[in-house]
Amino acid sequence: MEFELDGRPVSVSSSITLLAALRDELGVRSAKDGCAPQGQCGCCTVWVDGEPRVSCVTPVARVSGRRVTTLDGLDAGVRDRWADALCASGGSQCGFCTPGIVMRLAAERHQSTVRSDIASSLTAHLCRCTGWQTILDAAVMVASGEHDDFPRDDESANQRASIEGRSAQVVSPRVALGEGGFAEDTAPEDAWVAVLAPDGTWSVASNITEARQRAGVVQGRRSTLGINWPIEPPTGEFVRTLSTTWVEPAYLEPDAVWCRPGGEPFGPTENGGAFGDKARWLRDEARRLADENQRPMRVVLSREDVVRHGAKRPVLAGGVRSDGSGTIVVRRTEGVADLVRSVAPDWEVQVVDVPGPPSTLERRAAVWAEIAVLRSSLSDEPWDHVTSPEGAEAWARVDDDAIHVKVRCGRVLDRTVLHSYCVGAAHMALGWVRSEGLAVDESGVVHDLTIRSFGVVRASDMPDVRVEIVDDDAEPINGSDAVFVAVASAVWRFDGWPARWPSERDVADR
Ligand code: FES
Ligand code: FES
To answer: How far is the CA of 98 from the centre of ligand 2 (A)?
Structure first.
């Protein structure tokens, strides 16, 4: 099977997808696998005869004799303009989604400066980090030929990104082009690949297509089951109660680790909506499999595996009294009772067993967020105000035009980066309150395994987010978690405090 790749003739196996041919046989790393073969995240977008195509659902046979262009084959000037604009606007954080987004937007014949048009063009894409607004800013910059040559201190930008991402981060145009060093991209060429089979064993082969075939993986579907709220709210004299359901962290890069025999594992990359908590248990598996097979191994979770096995924030239900005290009933999760006692000593905590995927307190503002929004709902002030356990302050207000945010979190270090993480936090908060949820059945099995079923807010549904950063000379601390909680409080207030999140999804809309 032959086609033209970035201007040169190539020949590949004929019974695989275009994405598998690009990544496994031709060494292309800019096209990412975020959900293959679901075709729902847009990370693998390339051009076929100049038209954007989702390569993970395109049989390579369909491009026989045709012209395939990846990000690497784009005109260097065009590629650099996009990378610079995304970096200047804060429109890329982990950089996993942006190569596909650039391929989508750069294909437009008449690049629009109309934000709603740009957002509509991104219907086939997902981004977990940025909240879209800064991606639209970058697209407007490119379309209007603007340049932002502001001087930037790279070290300060990296420091602010690492504080907000809660793991080492790099801010650079290269990252926006997908060169952030993901384990799936940096594994040695001769590494074999291991994927999880349905019985929990590893299926090992020389390439991912074969490993998945051998594993007999049945692809996940969006469930016909509805979301449920597994914990009943406490009873008592509460002014307000809140019940949450399972939500997926939904970082776009599925967890992956590679390792040489006797070596140190590399990965997973702890970024992109994970906030420092990806599947670290894969490191032991990669080391073991590399030693057992005496060759470099890469261990890769599919999107379905990430959802099935990845840790979620604990589900809970809570109620707040008029004096600000309250009760939290929460899924048994390591450290949760201590956390509640430390952030809310006047609250009662009841720990209960709920069947379901693993849960962790390492998810964004887990449990203290829910207590803070319940408390904030008692306030009559127009702005919801939250102070994080670290001491960052955030204020948020929602009206028909926008989500308004103020944040104070020590020295700003890099205004663009902090702004980007705050917009991303607002996006995540909006989805958490209104649309995000996973169907989990009564025995605890997750049913929503496709990336679109998580309810992440799409570009065209994202309101404007206006962020004011309050200058402060104190030590820099994480501000976006406080923004996440303040925005969740403000959205909840704006929506009239519905007692269940997500408020806009229930059995009826599934
Ligand atoms: S990897 Fe192809 S759309 Fe997600
Ligand atoms: S920058 Fe979009 S998913 Fe991370």
So the answer is: 7
Check pocket membership of 94 for ligand 2, CB cut-off 6 A. yes
- List of residues 6+ apart from 249 with CB closer than 8 A: 128, 273, 274, 277, 310, 312, 313, 363, 364
Beta bridge partners of 326: 320, 347
The answer to whether residues 69 and 82 belong to one domain is no
The domain in which residue 87 lies consists of: 76-181
Same domain, 88 and 13: no
Nearest atom of ligand 1 to the alpha carbon of 42:
3
| Residue 361 CA to ligand 1 centre (angstroms) | 29
| Domain CATH code at residue 458 | 3.30.365
List per-block mean pLDDT (blocks of 10 residues) for the chain, which spans 510 residues. Answer: 97 93 96 95 98 97 98 96 96 97 92 94 96 97 83 93 94 95 94 92 91 77 80 96 97 96 92 82 96 96 92 97 98 98 98 97 97 98 97 98 98 97 98 96 90 94 97 97 98 97 65
Q: Note whether residue 234 is domain-resident.
A: no
User: Both 142 and 96 in a single domain?
Assistant: yes
d(CA 179, CA 189): 17
Residues 332 and 274 in one domain: no
Ligand found nearest the CA of 450: 1
Instruction: Please tell me the pTM assigned to this model.
Output: 0.96
Total number of domains in the chain: 4
C-beta 87 within 6 A of ligand 2: no
Q: Is residue 459 part of a domain?
A: yes
Question: Nearest C-alpha to atom 3 of ligand 2 is from which residue?
Answer: 127
Quick check: 317 and 234 in contact, CB under 8 A?
yes
